[in-house]
Design brief:
Blueprint lengths: L2 H6 L5 E3 L10 H6 L1 H7 L6 E6 L2 E6 L2 H8 L5 E3 L2 H10 L8 H11 L5 H4 L2 H13 L7 E3 H18 L5 H23 L11 H26 L6 H8 L11 H14 L2 H16 L1 H14 L15 H13 L6 E5 L3 E3 L2 E3 L4 E4 L1 H5 L23 H6 L13 H16 L2 E4 L21 E6 L36
Length: 489
Amino acid sequence: MNGAALEKKRTWTAGAAPGIFPLLGHAIALYRRPLAFLHSLPAHGDLVEIRLGPRRAWLVCHPELAHEVLMDPYTFDKGGPLYDRLGRLMGDGLVTCRQPAHRDKRRLLQPAFRPSHVAAYTQLVAEEAESVCEGWQPGGAVPVTEAMTTLTTRVISRVLFSDALDDTTSAQVRDSLADVVRGLFVRTVVPVDALFRLPVPANRRYRHALARLHAVVDAAIAERRRGAARDDVLGTLLTATRGDGTRAALTDQEVHDHLITLLLTGTETSALSLASAFSLLARHPEAERSLHAELDTVLPGGRRPGPGDLPDLVRTRCVITETLRHASPGWLFTRVTTRETELAGCRLPAGATVLYSPYLLHHDPASFPDPERFDPDRWLPGRPTAGQRRAAMPFSAGNRKCLGDEFAMVEATVALATIAGRVRLRHRPGHVARAPRPAITLGPRSLVMACEDRPHPPSDAAHPVRGPATAAPCAPERRTAGDHVVDGA
C-alpha cells in the first residue's frame, strides 16, 4: 500500500489554540513571537482554530491537509485578510485574483517565465550580480539585504521593462517595500479596518509607501507609451490592451495591476532568500566549503555562469532549496472557502478563513529530521523522499503555484554562484542571530556582513566537469509542491 493510500485512512485531529484576547484574538502572539506561536499549534491538532482579531480562522498543520486545500482552488480560493489587503496594493492581478479569473491572466503572462525563456535570463542575472558586488572591498562592511534587494529589483525590472530602474527609483521601491510588508502583516493579524484609518505615523507611512509604488509603475507605463515597442512583459501587456479577438482587451488598470504584482513579488522574497543564504552559509562552514569547491570546479577563476553551467551547479541549487526550506520568506498564507465544506473532519462555513504556513510544514520533524539544522545535502540527487518533496512547498502547489518558480530558482542560483565565486561574506564580530521582525515575509531585513577575498585554486586544478548529475532533483515536484513570493500566481 502506498503512502497516499495510508494518508487517506489517517484519522485527523482538530482543536483550538488557547490564549485568545478579546478583539485581538491571537494577534499579540502572532506579532510578538510568530514562529514560536506557529510551532505551538500542532500540539492542538492537525487543523487548529485560531483568531485573527475577532475573526475565526483555521490553520492546517499537516502537509496532506495543505495539499487538500491548495489542490482545490475552487473551494479554497484566494482570499482572507492577507489577500483582502494585498488587493489594495496589487489590484486584481495574478496573485490576488479569484479562481474564475486566474486562467486567462496566467496564460497571458506564462510565456515570459517558461523554462526555455528563463535560461536566457542567466546572463542578465549574472551581470546584475557582478555589478552589485564589484564595489565591495575586502574587510569592508556589506549591507547584504540592501544589496540583494537592489539586485532583485534591477533583475525583475529588466524582465518587465527591458531596462533596470535607476538607482533612485530602486531605492524608492526598496524603502517602500519595507513599510508595506510590515503594514500588511499587522493588517492581516488584526483585520479591523477602523484601526488603520487612524491618522497615526505608521498608517501614514503605509499609505505613502503604497502611493510611491503605484507611482513607479505608472511612470514606467507612461514612458513606454511615449517610446518604441519592446519585446518584454510590458510590451506583451500593452499589446493585449488592443485585444486579439480571442480574449477581451486588457484595461489600463489591469496592465498596472499585473506590473505591480510582478515587480513586488519578484523583488522582496528573492532578496530575503539570498540574504538568508549568505547568513546561513557563514554559520555553516562545511556547507560553504562544499559550495566553494563546486564553484571552483564548474566556474574556475570565478568566471560568470552561463545557461550551460546550470545543470552542473548542483550543490549551489541545493543551497537555495535548503534555504527556502529552512528560512521560508513566505511563511503564512490565507485562503477563503467559497462554500460550506469539510476539512479534517470539521465543517467549515462558506467564507471561512483557512491558513497554511510553509515555515511550519518545513520545520516539522516528521517530514524533515533535525529541521533546525541547515543541511543542503538533504536535496542532493536521490536523497529526498517522496514525503519530503510533498512537504516542501516554498512555491505553493496546484494551479495557483507560483508562475515564476523556476525563474526564481535560476535567479537565486546564478546570483549565489556569481557572488560566492568572487567573495566570501562573514558575520561581523559580535553578530547575534535574532528572531526576524514579523512582517508579511520573514527574513534578515538589515543584515550587514564583512567582505573577504576568496582565493581560487590554480586554473589547471579546476575545470568544468560535465556529467549526468543535474540540479533538477533539488526542486520540488512541479504539480504538487513548491509559491514564490506572495503565495501563488
